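DEPOSITED CHAIN:
***
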Amino acid sequence: MSTLLTVVANMYFTTFTFNALQQGQYLLRDLKLAQQNKLSPKCTYATQVIGCIFGACLNYVMMISIVQNQTPSLLTIEGTPIWSGANVQSFNSLAIAWSIAPKMFSIGARYQWVTIAYLLGFIVPVPFWLMNRYFPRQGIWSYLNLSIILWYGGYLVVGINSSVFMYYYIGAFGQFYLRKYRPAYFVKWNYLVSAGLDGGTQVMVFLLTFAVAGGSGVSRPFPAWAGNPASGNVDKCMYNPANG
């Protein structure tokens, strides 16, 4: 009974603290981008509040519709190439895992490296900071932010990460090639195109969810071609023979 209460407490903690902090981080990120693009903080904040309220309502409607129409796929372990209940299932699993944290994450336990990683996170950036501090003429050290590198590098070892390549490719193209060799294009178009890609992706995900992927109950699959094979993995990643 006490473990069950701890699980529920962890869920409430995540809902009202972690999610709130994460949303605050997103708001600060948008404020930074708005400042770079000469938008007033009041205008940006008002837009953020409206977007949060509208997004919450829209996500609620989408969640109800998807759960009602894709229940069998969401309840299976492997899901489908489009629908999966992994995020919701991981929320429950993490709540249980952290409710018995001493048995899971203490030193000597199975997942002790989760705890040790906090200490390593403080230690790893120190040598690079020292190199930048005492060898400032070697400019490369000022560009190496280990916190960001390790954070995004972690995406490569979990889940389906075939899309990460495009993040790196577009980021390198904009921040290296355009910034260095086409500075006028960079100043005029980089952040505008970035905002367009961000907003356009979200709009297309919403439309495809209901019009194509079956979020409204009727699925309209794309034709099979080289970019959408009828069999095998859509992302062209090697299939693990151990899965049978």
